[in-house]
Amino acid sequence: MLNQRRFTPTDVRDKFEARTGSWVGPFSVLYIDNPVFAGYSFSSSGPRTTQEEYGQDLYEFVQQFYKLFPHLLSIDLYIGGQSYAGKYVPVLAHWIHSSRQNAPTRIPLRGLYIGGPLFAPAVMFPENFEYLYNVGAISKHQRTTGRKQTQDLVDRYLKGELDPADTIRQIMPLIFSTQIPSYDNYVTGEKVDFQRITAIMTSDRLRKALHVGSRDYVTMNGTLFSQFHSDIMSDTRDKLSELLDAGEYKVLIYSGDVDVMVSVAMVEAALLATPWSGRGAYENSSRKPWYGQPSPTSNRRPLYGYYSKTSQLCRVVVRGAGHQTPHDQPAISREMMLQFVHDDCVGVMTT
Description:
Protein name: Carboxypeptidase
Keywords: Carboxypeptidase, Glycoprotein, Hydrolase, Protease, Signal
Distance between the termini: 26 Å
GO molecular function: serine-type carboxypeptidase activity
Helix content: 40-55%
Strand content: 5-15%
């Protein structure tokens, strides 16, 4: 995501609304189909399935992008993503950060943001049962049994008794054993509509705009997923902690409060186990309510969620959102990004 210029949120809103009659936004967003063989992406070689491999590819892509569009080097760059991007985002940001330490680079990285991120699976997977127990979807026995079985598998993996692929194959049935309508959103029961996504992305209009010709679009690549079994258990906490401690980058980690796939409890467990200098302060921090502006017909301010700010880390829990937070709460997600880019975290413009 490229921040087009320094701005105040209200200033941008007023100008866009006056010109277009609707609020569009101040960002330019570049989407990357990753890993290769997902979406429209393709390669003459096999898939890149390790942090070193896809990190190198992503970094080379960024370098080539700025060679083609050098005028964008004057604009702040934010790297972000959702869910499994808990691997990709810290890895790419760390490649850029490392290049700055080893040689001068002009890549204008300003921050990173990740939603519902899977970045420390061995820590996070056993916490999967906490959310379901707290909302009453499983019993104490189910929580205790599921957590113990998952932790046992994780411990065997950490001892080297199970390889990553076997660990995933045995953990997944435990995690997805509960008969709830959706792991994306516990309240609405909505799931990702892959058919709708495919219909949009393969429409003539999109194909022409993306210059993909007749190339196939892959919404869900099961073969590729199986090739990533080893990477699923990989951890990016070391890279995230180095980025946080560098003091050069803003970091936003957000969650939906009704996300079961990567619940708030799972993300919290990983953050509290991330070895950065601000971990103690984060552990002792207090979360504050995040309110929006009152509507013209009411003085009551809507509750958007909750947040805390610890050094470079902005932690946000979005109310009424599941794993697909921008889909479930688009207006709040937009405001979250505006405030993060402008003020380093949320809560400043609405308190």
